[in-house]
Protein backbone atom coordinates (compact mmCIF):
# COMPACT_ATOMS: atom_id res chain seq x y z
CA UNK A 1 0.00 0.00 0.00
CA UNK A 2 1.10 3.51 -0.74
CA UNK A 3 2.37 5.24 2.34
CA UNK A 4 0.46 8.19 3.64
CA UNK A 5 1.48 11.61 2.39
CA UNK A 6 2.45 12.75 5.86
CA UNK A 7 4.68 9.74 6.47
CA UNK A 8 6.45 10.25 3.19
CA UNK A 9 6.88 13.94 3.87
CA UNK A 10 8.41 13.05 7.19
CA UNK A 11 10.79 10.65 5.47
CA UNK A 12 11.86 13.38 3.05
CA UNK A 13 12.46 15.66 6.02
CA UNK A 14 14.79 13.07 7.47
CA UNK A 15 17.38 14.09 4.87
CA UNK A 16 18.28 17.41 6.43
CA UNK A 17 20.52 18.53 3.62
CA UNK A 18 18.85 21.63 2.36
CA UNK A 19 20.28 21.70 -1.12
CA UNK A 20 18.42 22.48 -4.32
CA UNK A 21 17.54 18.80 -4.75
CA UNK A 22 15.77 18.81 -1.43
CA UNK A 23 13.49 21.70 -2.36
CA UNK A 24 12.80 20.24 -5.79
CA UNK A 25 11.87 16.94 -4.18
CA UNK A 26 9.66 18.79 -1.76
CA UNK A 27 7.88 20.55 -4.62
CA UNK A 28 7.31 17.27 -6.54
CA UNK A 29 6.12 15.76 -3.39
CA UNK A 30 3.57 18.45 -2.67
CA UNK A 31 2.26 18.10 -6.21
CA UNK A 32 1.88 14.35 -5.65
CA UNK A 33 0.07 15.18 -2.45
CA UNK A 34 -2.53 17.05 -4.54
CA UNK A 35 -1.55 20.57 -3.61
CA UNK A 36 -1.31 21.52 -7.25
CA UNK A 37 1.67 22.94 -9.14
CA UNK A 38 1.11 26.57 -8.15
CA UNK A 39 0.71 26.00 -4.44
CA UNK A 40 3.52 23.42 -4.40
CA UNK A 41 5.88 25.96 -5.92
CA UNK A 42 4.82 28.69 -3.51
CA UNK A 43 5.27 26.44 -0.50
CA UNK A 44 8.65 25.11 -1.56
CA UNK A 45 9.84 28.67 -2.29
CA UNK A 46 8.68 29.84 1.10
CA UNK A 47 10.37 26.81 2.66
CA UNK A 48 13.63 27.79 0.97
CA UNK A 49 13.48 31.16 2.68
CA UNK A 50 12.41 29.74 6.01
CA UNK A 51 15.16 27.12 5.93
CA UNK A 52 17.67 29.97 5.66
CA UNK A 53 16.18 32.24 8.28
CA UNK A 54 15.01 29.71 10.84
CA UNK A 55 17.65 26.99 10.39
CA UNK A 56 15.53 23.94 11.17
CA UNK A 57 17.49 21.13 12.79
CA UNK A 58 15.10 18.20 12.72
CA UNK A 59 12.19 16.62 10.92
CA UNK A 60 9.62 18.08 13.23
CA UNK A 61 10.86 21.64 12.66
CA UNK A 62 10.31 21.10 8.93
CA UNK A 63 6.91 19.55 9.39
CA UNK A 64 5.86 22.46 11.55
CA UNK A 65 7.10 24.90 8.92
CA UNK A 66 5.00 23.28 6.21
CA UNK A 67 2.06 23.17 8.57
CA UNK A 68 2.41 26.89 9.23
CA UNK A 69 2.54 27.67 5.52
CA UNK A 70 -0.57 25.58 4.83
CA UNK A 71 -2.36 26.93 7.85
CA UNK A 72 -2.58 30.44 6.45
CA UNK A 73 -4.31 29.01 3.39
CA UNK A 74 -7.27 27.18 4.88
CA UNK A 75 -10.05 28.13 7.21
CA UNK A 76 -12.52 26.23 9.35
CA UNK A 77 -16.13 27.31 9.51
CA UNK A 78 -18.81 26.12 11.89
CA UNK A 79 -22.33 27.07 10.83
CA UNK A 80 -24.60 28.42 13.53
CA UNK A 81 -28.26 27.53 13.76
CA UNK A 82 -31.01 29.54 15.37
CA UNK A 83 -34.10 28.28 17.08
CA UNK A 84 -36.16 31.31 16.21
CA UNK A 85 -35.61 31.18 12.48
CA UNK A 86 -35.45 28.58 9.74
CA UNK A 87 -32.05 27.77 8.22
CA UNK A 88 -31.59 26.01 4.88
CA UNK A 89 -28.52 23.98 3.96
CA UNK A 90 -28.16 23.08 0.30
CA UNK A 91 -25.93 20.03 -0.10
CA UNK A 92 -24.18 19.85 -3.46
CA UNK A 93 -21.70 17.59 -5.17
CA UNK A 94 -21.22 15.11 -7.98
CA UNK A 95 -22.73 11.62 -7.79
CA UNK A 96 -21.29 9.29 -5.22
CA UNK A 97 -19.26 11.85 -3.24
CA UNK A 98 -21.42 11.28 -0.16
CA UNK A 99 -24.12 13.99 -0.20
CA UNK A 100 -26.97 11.86 1.06
CA UNK A 101 -24.82 10.18 3.69
CA UNK A 102 -23.50 13.56 4.86
CA UNK A 103 -27.07 14.85 5.11
CA UNK A 104 -28.04 11.93 7.32
CA UNK A 105 -24.99 12.51 9.53
CA UNK A 106 -25.67 16.23 9.81
CA UNK A 107 -29.31 15.54 10.61
CA UNK A 108 -28.22 13.30 13.46
CA UNK A 109 -25.68 15.82 14.71
CA UNK A 110 -28.15 18.72 14.81
CA UNK A 111 -30.93 16.58 16.23
CA UNK A 112 -28.59 15.66 19.06
CA UNK A 113 -28.13 19.37 19.68
CA UNK A 114 -31.88 19.79 20.05
CA UNK A 115 -32.79 21.19 16.64
CA UNK A 116 -35.80 20.12 14.60
CA UNK A 117 -34.41 18.91 11.31
CA UNK A 118 -36.25 18.20 8.08
CA UNK A 119 -34.91 16.55 4.93
CA UNK A 120 -35.89 17.67 1.44
CA UNK A 121 -35.53 15.20 -1.43
CA UNK A 122 -34.54 17.56 -4.23
CA UNK A 123 -32.48 14.92 -6.03
CA UNK A 124 -35.51 13.99 -8.11
CA UNK A 125 -33.37 12.84 -11.02
CA UNK A 126 -33.05 9.30 -9.67
CA UNK A 127 -35.92 7.48 -7.94
CA UNK A 128 -33.41 5.59 -5.80
CA UNK A 129 -32.11 8.87 -4.39
CA UNK A 130 -35.52 9.72 -2.92
CA UNK A 131 -35.87 6.22 -1.44
CA UNK A 132 -32.40 6.40 0.07
CA UNK A 133 -33.18 9.69 1.79
CA UNK A 134 -36.50 8.32 2.99
CA UNK A 135 -34.78 5.37 4.66
CA UNK A 136 -32.50 7.81 6.51
CA UNK A 137 -35.43 10.04 7.49
CA UNK A 138 -37.25 7.07 9.00
CA UNK A 139 -34.22 5.84 10.88
CA UNK A 140 -33.41 9.29 12.19
CA UNK A 141 -37.00 10.22 12.97
CA UNK A 142 -36.85 13.30 10.73
CA UNK A 143 -39.61 14.61 8.56
CA UNK A 144 -39.06 14.27 4.81
CA UNK A 145 -40.53 16.42 2.08
CA UNK A 146 -40.54 14.70 -1.31
CA UNK A 147 -42.37 14.52 -4.58
CA UNK A 148 -42.34 11.80 -7.16
CA UNK A 149 -39.18 11.12 -9.08
CA UNK A 150 -38.71 13.35 -12.10
CA UNK A 151 -40.56 16.26 -10.53
CA UNK A 152 -39.15 19.77 -10.33
CA UNK A 153 -36.51 19.96 -7.57
CA UNK A 154 -37.27 23.66 -7.10
CA UNK A 155 -40.85 22.78 -6.30
CA UNK A 156 -39.71 20.28 -3.65
CA UNK A 157 -37.61 22.99 -2.03
CA UNK A 158 -40.48 25.48 -2.20
CA UNK A 159 -42.80 23.00 -0.46
CA UNK A 160 -40.16 22.09 2.09
CA UNK A 161 -39.63 25.72 3.11
CA UNK A 162 -43.35 26.43 3.34
CA UNK A 163 -43.93 23.34 5.43
CA UNK A 164 -40.92 23.87 7.73
CA UNK A 165 -41.94 27.47 8.38
CA UNK A 166 -45.48 26.39 9.23
CA UNK A 167 -44.17 23.88 11.76
CA UNK A 168 -41.45 26.04 13.18
CA UNK A 169 -38.69 23.61 12.25
CA UNK A 170 -35.12 24.87 12.54
CA UNK A 171 -33.20 23.31 9.69
CA UNK A 172 -33.88 21.92 6.22
CA UNK A 173 -31.16 19.77 4.69
CA UNK A 174 -31.70 19.75 0.94
CA UNK A 175 -30.40 16.76 -1.03
CA UNK A 176 -29.62 17.65 -4.65
CA UNK A 177 -28.79 15.83 -7.84
CA UNK A 178 -25.13 15.39 -8.70
CA UNK A 179 -25.68 14.66 -12.33
CA UNK A 180 -28.25 15.34 -15.03
CA UNK A 181 -28.46 14.80 -18.77
CA UNK A 182 -25.80 17.43 -19.16
CA UNK A 183 -23.80 19.91 -17.16
CA UNK A 184 -25.85 22.92 -18.27
CA UNK A 185 -29.06 21.28 -17.04
CA UNK A 186 -27.52 20.59 -13.68
CA UNK A 187 -26.23 24.12 -13.27
CA UNK A 188 -29.55 25.58 -14.33
CA UNK A 189 -31.52 23.41 -11.89
CA UNK A 190 -29.20 24.27 -9.04
CA UNK A 191 -29.36 27.98 -9.65
CA UNK A 192 -33.15 27.70 -9.86
CA UNK A 193 -33.20 26.05 -6.44
CA UNK A 194 -30.90 28.81 -5.21
CA UNK A 195 -33.30 31.51 -6.41
CA UNK A 196 -36.27 29.75 -4.85
CA UNK A 197 -34.60 29.60 -1.44
CA UNK A 198 -33.80 33.29 -1.59
CA UNK A 199 -37.23 34.09 -3.02
CA UNK A 200 -38.85 32.38 -0.04
CA UNK A 201 -37.28 34.96 2.23
CA UNK A 202 -34.36 32.91 3.57
CA UNK A 203 -31.57 35.47 3.97
CA UNK A 204 -27.86 34.84 3.58
CA UNK A 205 -27.33 34.36 7.32
CA UNK A 206 -29.77 31.43 7.28
CA UNK A 207 -28.83 29.87 4.00
CA UNK A 208 -25.62 27.92 3.36
CA UNK A 209 -24.47 26.07 0.31
CA UNK A 210 -22.11 23.19 1.00
CA UNK A 211 -20.08 21.29 -1.54
CA UNK A 212 -19.25 17.71 -0.62
CA UNK A 213 -15.80 16.68 -1.75
CA UNK A 214 -14.73 13.04 -1.66
CA UNK A 215 -11.30 13.14 -0.08
CA UNK A 216 -10.08 10.21 -2.16
CA UNK A 217 -10.64 11.94 -5.51
CA UNK A 218 -7.73 14.36 -5.34
CA UNK A 219 -7.45 16.80 -8.23
CA UNK A 220 -11.00 16.25 -9.51
CA UNK A 221 -12.18 18.15 -6.50
CA UNK A 222 -10.81 21.35 -8.02
CA UNK A 223 -12.93 21.17 -11.15
CA UNK A 224 -15.93 20.13 -9.08
CA UNK A 225 -15.57 23.16 -6.85
CA UNK A 226 -15.22 25.33 -9.93
CA UNK A 227 -18.37 23.87 -11.51
CA UNK A 228 -20.63 24.15 -8.48
CA UNK A 229 -19.29 27.54 -7.52
CA UNK A 230 -20.48 28.75 -10.92
CA UNK A 231 -24.03 27.57 -10.25
CA UNK A 232 -24.32 28.89 -6.72
CA UNK A 233 -21.88 30.77 -4.58
CA UNK A 234 -20.49 28.09 -2.26
CA UNK A 235 -20.20 28.85 1.45
CA UNK A 236 -18.28 25.86 2.73
CA UNK A 237 -16.94 22.42 2.00
CA UNK A 238 -17.73 19.07 3.54
CA UNK A 239 -14.93 16.58 3.24
CA UNK A 240 -16.27 13.02 2.98
CA UNK A 241 -14.56 9.64 3.23
CA UNK A 242 -11.64 10.99 5.17
CA UNK A 243 -11.38 7.55 6.81
CA UNK A 244 -10.01 5.84 3.70
CA UNK A 245 -6.75 6.64 1.94
CA UNK A 246 -7.48 10.31 2.11
CA UNK A 247 -5.68 12.88 0.05
CA UNK A 248 -6.31 16.03 1.97
CA UNK A 249 -3.98 18.15 -0.13
CA UNK A 250 -6.65 18.93 -2.71
CA UNK A 251 -8.74 20.44 0.03
CA UNK A 252 -6.07 23.02 0.82
CA UNK A 253 -5.94 23.89 -2.84
CA UNK A 254 -9.71 24.27 -3.14
CA UNK A 255 -9.89 26.24 0.08
CA UNK A 256 -7.28 28.65 -1.17
CA UNK A 257 -8.28 28.93 -4.81
CA UNK A 258 -11.94 29.58 -4.16
CA UNK A 259 -11.57 31.03 -0.65
CA UNK A 260 -14.05 28.49 0.70
CA UNK A 261 -13.74 27.34 4.33
CA UNK A 262 -14.22 23.76 5.49
CA UNK A 263 -17.12 22.92 7.75
CA UNK A 264 -17.33 19.18 8.34
CA UNK A 265 -15.37 16.01 7.87
CA UNK A 266 -16.97 12.61 7.33
CA UNK A 267 -14.93 9.67 8.52
CA UNK A 268 -17.09 6.60 7.96
CA UNK A 269 -20.48 5.24 7.06
CA UNK A 270 -22.33 5.48 10.36
CA UNK A 271 -24.30 8.50 11.53
CA UNK A 272 -21.77 9.29 14.23
CA UNK A 273 -18.95 9.58 11.69
CA UNK A 274 -19.05 13.33 11.15
CA UNK A 275 -17.16 16.06 12.95
CA UNK A 276 -16.64 19.78 12.62
CA UNK A 277 -13.45 20.42 10.71
CA UNK A 278 -10.50 20.71 13.08
CA UNK A 279 -7.84 22.61 11.17
CA UNK A 280 -5.03 21.83 13.56
CA UNK A 281 -5.72 18.12 13.61
CA UNK A 282 -6.19 18.04 9.84
CA UNK A 283 -2.87 19.76 9.18
CA UNK A 284 -1.03 17.60 11.72
CA UNK A 285 -2.22 14.49 9.96
CA UNK A 286 -1.50 15.97 6.53
CA UNK A 287 2.13 16.73 7.32
CA UNK A 288 2.58 13.56 9.43
CA UNK A 289 2.92 15.18 12.84
N1 LIG B 1 -16.12 5.24 4.25
C1 LIG B 1 -16.94 6.24 4.01
N2 LIG B 1 -17.91 6.08 3.11
C2 LIG B 1 -18.75 7.11 2.87
C3 LIG B 1 -18.63 8.34 3.56
N3 LIG B 1 -19.59 9.17 3.08
C4 LIG B 1 -20.28 8.45 2.16
N4 LIG B 1 -19.77 7.22 2.01
C5 LIG B 1 -20.21 6.15 1.09
O1 LIG B 1 -20.13 6.62 -0.24
C6 LIG B 1 -21.17 6.08 -1.04
C7 LIG B 1 -21.94 7.19 -1.75
O2 LIG B 1 -22.59 7.99 -0.78
P1 LIG B 1 -23.92 8.80 -1.06
O3 LIG B 1 -24.24 9.55 0.16
O4 LIG B 1 -24.98 7.93 -1.60
O5 LIG B 1 -23.42 9.79 -2.21
P2 LIG B 1 -24.25 10.86 -3.08
O6 LIG B 1 -24.44 10.24 -4.42
O7 LIG B 1 -23.39 12.07 -3.17
O8 LIG B 1 -25.53 11.12 -2.37
C8 LIG B 1 -22.03 5.26 -0.10
O9 LIG B 1 -21.67 3.91 -0.23
C9 LIG B 1 -21.67 5.79 1.28
O10 LIG B 1 -21.84 4.82 2.29
C10 LIG B 1 -17.56 8.50 4.51
O11 LIG B 1 -17.34 9.55 5.15
N5 LIG B 1 -16.75 7.41 4.69
MG1 LIG C 1 -27.49 10.94 -3.02
Can you tell me the overall shape?
elongated
Spatial strand order of the main sheet? 3-2-4-1-5-6-7-8
Q: Tell me the Rg in angstroms.
A: 21 Å
Low-confidence stretches: none
Distance between the termini: 20 Å
What is the tally of beta strands?
8
Can you tell me about this structure?
This protein has 289 residues and is of the alpha/beta class. The protein has eleven helices and eight strands. It has helices at 5-12, 20-32, 37-54, 59-71, 99-112, 127-140, 153-167, 183-199, 220-231, 249-258, 279-287, and strands at residues 87-92, 117-122, 143-145, 171-176, 207-214, 236-240, 262-266, 274-276. An eight-stranded mixed sheet has the order 3-2-4-1-5-6-7-8, with helices on both faces. The relative contact order is 0.17. The model has no long low-confidence stretch (mean pLDDT 91). Bound molecules: guanosine-5'-diphosphate and magnesium ion (MG). Magnesium ion (MG) binds at residues 99-100, 123, 129, 175. Guanosine-5'-diphosphate (GDP) binds next to helix 5.
Amino acid sequence: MKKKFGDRLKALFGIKIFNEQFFEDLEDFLIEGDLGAKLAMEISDEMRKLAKSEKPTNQEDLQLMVKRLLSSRIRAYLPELHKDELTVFLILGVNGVGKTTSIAKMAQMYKNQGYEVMLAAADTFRAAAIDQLEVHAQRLGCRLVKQKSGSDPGSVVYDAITSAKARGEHLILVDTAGRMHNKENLLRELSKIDKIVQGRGIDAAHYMKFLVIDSTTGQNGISQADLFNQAVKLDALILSKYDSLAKGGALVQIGEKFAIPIAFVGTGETYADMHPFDKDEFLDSLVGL
